[in-house]
Amino acid sequence: MKIRKDIAQRKRTDKVFSLVGLIATLVGIVTLLALMIDLAWDGTARLNWNFFTAFPSRFPDKAGILSAWVGTGVVMFVTALAAVPMGVAAGVYLEEYAPKNVMTTLIEINIANLAGVPSIVYGLMALGLFVYKFQFGMSILTAGLTLALLILPIVIMATREAIRTIPGSIREAAFAVGATKWQMIRHHILPYSAGGILTGVIIGLSRAIGESAPLITIGALTFIAFLPASPFTGTFPFLSFEWLKSPYTVLPIQAFNWVSRPQKAFHLNAAAAGLTLMAMTLAMNGAAIWIRYRFRKRIKW
Question: Could you say which of 170, 218, 245, 265 would form a disulfide bridge with 60 (CB–CB 3.0 to 4.6 Å)?
Fold first, then answer.
C-alpha cells in the first residue's frame, strides 16, 4: 500500500514539474515572439534596398546599415576563424590527452568560470593586450579576437561534453584494429561528436553577434561612412589582409546609437537594424544546423 502511495506521489510530482517546465518554456517563447512582433511592427517599413546599401546619416530617412552589417559579418568571420579551431582543439586535448591531475583540474575550473565572466571584462583585457600591448589598434582583428576569447570557454565546454557522449566501446574497437589515438579521434570521435560541437559553436556565435560592450571598450565606431579595404587585389598574391586593420562598427552599436537619438524616425531605424540582426543570427544558426545535419547523415550512411 505504501509503495502505491509513493508511486502516485511521484507521478503527481512529475506532472507538476512538467507543467512548470511547460510554463517556463511558453514564457520564453511568448516573450521572444512579442519582441519580434514589436520590432517587425516598427521596423518593417524601413527594410528596403536603400536601407541595406546606404551608410549612416544624420537624416533618418536616408540612413542605412551598410557599414554595420558588413562590419558584423567580417568581425564574426574572424571570431569563428579564431575560436572554433582553438576551442575544439583545446576540448579534444583536455578530454583525450591531458593527464588527470591537479593542474588539469584547475584549468577545467577556470574554463568553466570564464564562461560566466561579464563581457566588459573581456573588453578591458583586450584593450590592454591587443590594442596597447600587441599594437593591433582599434581594428576588425582586435574585435574578432576579443569575441573569440569571449566564446572560447563555451566552445571548449561544448566540445568536451560532446566527446563524453561517445561510448568507450568505439575507442576500444578503433584501438583493436590497430588505429593510433589520433586516427581514432579523427575518424571516429570527432565525426560522431560533430553535432554536439556545432551546437556549442552556434550558442557561442549567437552570443558574440549581439555583444556591444566589449567592442565599445576597444574602440568600435558609432558612426562610420566607409567599408573595410577589399580582401582581393589585382596583383599577386591577389589577397590582402589590410581589411583586418580597418575601423569598424557592428549592428548592435548602430542600433544603440539610433535608440539614443530623440527623433522617432531613428527609433524605427533601430527596430529595422534589430530585425536584420535577428535575421543574421537565424541564418547563421540555420547554416550550422544544416552542416550538423550533413555530418549526421554521412555518419548514418
Answer: 265
Cα four-point dihedral sign 114, 120, 126, 127 = negative
Query: What's the rounded Cα separation, in Å, for the pair 128 and 118?
Result: 17
Grid coordinates belonging to 145: 579576437
> 143-165, pLDDT tens digit by residue?
999 999 999 999 999 999 889 88
Q: Name the percent of the chain in helix, strand, coil, to the closest 5.
A: 75, 0, 25
Q: What is the DSSP letter of 239?
A: B
Burial (CB count within 10 angstroms: exposed 0-12, middle 13-18, buried 19+), residue 213? middle
Tell me if residue 72 falls in helix, strand or coil.
helix
User: What percentage of the chain exceeds 70 in pLDDT?
Assistant: 97
For the domain 48-300, what is the CATH superfamily, name and number?
Answer: MetI-like (1.10.3720.10)
- The dihedral sign for the CA sequence 2, 7, 12, 17: positive
**CA torsion, ordered 31, 216, 151, 119, to nearest 10 deg:** -70
Other CB atoms within 10 Å distance of the CB of residue 22: 10
Residue 15: in which H helix or E strand, if any? helix 2-43
The model's pLDDT over 194-234, given as tens digits with 9 standing for 90+, comes to: 888 888 888 888 888 888 888 888 877 777 888 887 787 77
Look up the pTM and report it: 0.85
205-215 pLDDT, tens digit per residue, is: 888 888 888 88
Q: Where are the domains of the chain?
A: 1-46, 48-300
Q: Which of 44, 25, 65, 83 is nearest to 202 (CA)?
A: 83
- Inter-helix orientation angle 66-92/190-209, to 10°: 140
